[in-house]
């Protein structure tokens, strides 16, 4: 179910700076619940069991690192979308704060989460 977000309605995927086939997608994780911001002001909700495998894999790789991150209350857009940890994470994603992550996903993956197929809406 695609949900209009009223809390963080300014989160949305942004194009990767070096690979235009990839998107940097904000994800918020709180108590095993995930909000994946798939479009401007819209997000999909998942739990540990329903989170897509590609996202589970990337989250596991990110959580295996021990890099420092900021608190949620000082997180800015620039901080969320910028990888300040390691170039190795540029096409995986990183942890930006206590509950916010930035995952790097393909356009077809994001389109599927929005209910689209190859960039066009399913009728």
The radius of gyration is 14 Å
The helix tally amounts to 3
Note the gap between the termini: 15 Å
Instruction: Assign a percent range to the helix content.
Output: 10-25%
In terms of DSSP E residues, the strand content is 25-35%
The biggest sheet, with number of strands, parallel, antiparallel or mixed sense and barrel status, is: 7 strands, antiparallel
- Average of pLDDT: 85
Count of individual beta strands = 9
- 3D shape: globular
- Count of distinct structural domains: 1
pLDDT below 50 for ≥5 consecutive residues: which ranges?
1-8
Q: What string gives the helices and strands in order?
A: EEEEEHHEEHEE
Describe this entry's structure for a reader.
- The chain is built from three helices and nine strands; from the N terminus they run E-E-E-E-E-H-H-E-E-H-E-E.
- It is globular, with a radius of gyration of 14 Å.
- The chain is of the alpha+beta class and 123 residues long.
- It has one domain.
- Strands 1, 2, 3, 4, 5, 6 and 7 form a seven-stranded antiparallel beta sheet that branches. It has a two-stranded antiparallel ribbon with strand order 8-9.
- It has helices spanning 53-63, 77-81, 107-113; strands at 2-4, 14-15, 22-30, 33-39, 42-47, 93-95, 100-106, 116-117, 120-121.
Give the structure's gist in a few sentences:
With 123 residues, this protein is α+β, with helices and mostly antiparallel strands. The chain has helices at residues 53-63, 77-81, 107-113; strands spanning 2-4, 14-15, 22-30, 33-39, 42-47, 93-95, 100-106, 116-117, 120-121.
